[in-house]
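Review this:
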Amino acid sequence: MKKQTYIHRLNKFSNPICILLTKKYKIRIDEMSNGKYRYASWKITAPMIDKPDIIIQNGEYVSEGSGGNHHYTFKNGKYIYECGIVLISEDDSAPAYLTIYKDDKEILNEPATVL
């Protein structure tokens, strides 16, 4: 029954933005009815119907110029999660990334693919 409750909670959003896959994580970003964004993350081996390991509300969209690159920033206490979408880059660059900061120090940076 708990899984259904969590699936139901995650189904409440205005617009699905993307699902990112890194080496360690599956990340789902949704736009909410208040214009903010939600981050939900699972370990890469966990099914997305399970309860997420972390859910962060009130994320922000940040444009990175006129080329279309952008990222979403989510704050959770001392941690900042940044999920970037890379539309213009070098040929061998990943189409997305996850960077996690703790107290403004980068503690994780992983390339990601976009589903």
Remarks:
- The chain has a mean pLDDT of 89.
- The chain is about 10% helix and 55% strand.
- The radius of gyration is 14 Å.
